[in-house]
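Per reviewer request, we include the raw input and output of the structure prediction for the construct analysed in the revised manuscript.
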Amino acid sequence: MKIDAHQHYWKLSRGDYSWITPDLPVLYRDYLPDDLESKLEGLGIDKTIVVQASSTLNETKFLLDLSDQTDSIAGVVGWIDFESDYFEEQFEKFHKHPSFIGVRIMLQDINDSEYVLRPYIIERLKFLADRSFPVDLLVKENQLSAIAKLVNLIPHLRGVINHIGKPDIKNGVFEPWAGWIQEIAKNENIYCKLSGMVTEADHQCWQYSDFEFYIQQIVSVFGSERILFGSDWPVCLLAAKYEQVENILKVMLSKIISEEEMKLIFGLNAIRFYQLKL
């Protein structure tokens, strides 16, 4: 089974997406399952995992409702409020829905690079880890050192780095990103999504070779058993079509891994990590 482990849907009239503005005309419209189904069929992708794009409980409910109506949605990685006194109640409410398969903590826009190490955040991540519940970690490169500390503090956290930790691909910067990724990967409960790379490159004139080192590093330290393919559609449209995103990975990975390993990255690992019942 082929699975896109990271994409988004949104409906602007719901009012949840303050970051999507007319300054981003490619994204400033609704993106719903009807917009993606033909692409999935054309590429032989059976299922997708829809990831939250707004820090609201209402958006998580919207995505879960969408999953009830859409066969191609394998599950929803939603949002709950790590700052709230009602964090556990929010989790338990959503957890009743069979499509609620993960939580994403959005760290990338928080100025404090060690926010994730605050005691009450650690406590809530431990709550999820104790239940073996998957956590998507949306971080920038300068926050990876804190993630390395986090996975030592909570070694049983079932976590996945989104967008390979957002290195500066546009300028070809490898360190300290590569070193921190290697350190994080030592924890066998942590996975990584090969996603979001085109938007970290030059949007107008990226080349396949721009991604080669980064992909090789991820495969080298995580191994083919802990990597997930994600398109990051429709955000990827800022720099590349869905088909191009998939092809970058297929071309680059085919140089270094087998066909059987490709099947892991393009589906089987997502089933295992998110504990999907398909």
